[in-house]
Amino acid sequence: MISVEHLTKRYGKAVVVDDVSFEVPAGDAVALWGPNGAGKSTVVRCVLGLAAFEGRVEVGGLDVRSHPKAARRLLGQVPQELSFYEDLSVGETVDLSAGLRRVGAEEADRALELVGLARERTKKVGALSGG
Q1: Smallest Cα–Cα separation from 59: which of 68, 50, 107, 51?
Q2: pLDDT, position 104
Q3: Helices 105-114 and 90-100 sit at what angle, rounded to 10 degrees?
Q4: Does domain 2-73 have CATH number 3.40.50.300?
Q5: CA-CA distance, 18 to 98, in Å (whole number)?
Q6: What whole-number distance in Å separates Cα of residue 72 and Cα of residue 68?
Q7: From CA 16, how far away is CA 9, in angstroms rounded?
Q8: CA angle 26, 69, 14 (to 5 degrees)
Q9: Which of 3, 43, 81, 90 is 20 to 30 Å apart from 37, CA to CA?
Q10: How far apart are CA 22 and CA 57, in angstroms?
């Protein structure tokens, strides 16, 4: 699903990711662990096609340089810091996110069902458990 070969990222003369290669099969989840400044967020930005890099990155057979949006549609990402409007309801939050991503209401409702939050649609996000 994700194939990274010889990924290198430079900011000016500073090499922040140096010749990284890895594979992630379809259906697997992966976490990047390491100290601050190790390049974890930079690797994720490259895999998502949000940063220029050297090397090759494919997601679902798509080159992320040529097809960044299509590649991102195949991935899920949980950022280090989650940020929600706690005074919005679950439904309002999903509707807002769906609208920004041009996802239809039926698909947004299906997502709530899938993650077990359909019954919580009217509950404020701030009232939900962190888990």
Answers
A1: 68
A2: 87
A3: 130
A4: yes
A5: 36
A6: 6
A7: 6
A8: 90
A9: 3
A10: 10
Tokens of 113: 């069902």
- How far apart CA 104 and CA 125 sit, in angstroms, is 21
Give domain limits for the chain: 2-73, 90-127
**Cα(87)–Cα(45) distance, integer angstroms:** 29
Spell out the per-residue pLDDT of the chain, length 131, in tens: 999 999 999 999 999 999 999 999 998 988 888 888 899 999 999 999 999 999 999 999 999 999 999 999 899 877 766 778 889 999 999 988 888 888 888 888 998 999 889 999 999 988 887 76
AA identity, residue 106: E
For residue 47, the surrounding DSSP H or E stretch is: helix 40-47
